[in-house]
């Protein structure tokens, strides 16, 4: 007999669009996935969520994925927030090891934007967003390197058709254990970045 599974657990799902938008804005590097002839095309690109509720991105014309982003085709996008291993040692109660993470899965329809002027303005806008709040660098409209690159970049926008927030943060534990897991997520991410970079570079 088939028993339907309650998966993913509702307690780990966050359907609050504002929470998901916060993830997108804080961690804008997205995994963009398209499929053609049962072959997945995967590219990592920063995407900016605009006031119209759409995602705006740019891709190198030489990227094979670019051809799939020129047409009104379905696309899947994943935004990844902080994540880490959670040791039972941090809990006040008996638990098993687990992994906590924040992810946002989106499904949408992609459309090419042909206007070179729109592309230029979009690159300037994206740079301003990513430079916030200090804005130590301002990309000027007459920047010659940018103007020379416009012929090699394509712009696209994604209309979001479905949202899914996956916030696995030990919500099924006691309040103190939830707080301990939150503190561990912060600590582990800060420490692991430094350790990794010191090892690799």
Shape: globular
Round the Cα radius of gyration to an integer and report it: 20 Å
CATH fold naming: Pnp Oxidase, Chain A
- Given helix and strand content, the structural type is alpha+beta
Overview of this protein structure:
- This protein has 201 residues and is α+β, with helices and mostly antiparallel strands.
- The chain has a single domain, classed as Pnp Oxidase, Chain A (Roll), CATH 2.30.110.10.
- Helices cover 29% and strands 35% of the residues.
- It is built from four helices and seven strands, in the order αββββββααβα.
- It has helices at 17-26, 116-131, 144-149, 175-200; strands at 29-36, 39-46, 48-49, 54-60, 73-86, 98-113, 153-168.
- The chain has a seven-stranded antiparallel sheet with strand order 2-1-5-6-7-4-3.
- A hairpin with a 4-residue loop joins strand 3 and strand 4.
- The longest helix is centred in the C-terminal third of the chain and has 26 residues, at 175-200.
Question: Which terms would index this structure?
Answer:
4 helices; 201 residues; 35% strand; 7 strands; alpha+beta; Pnp Oxidase, Chain A; globular; single chain; seven-stranded antiparallel sheet
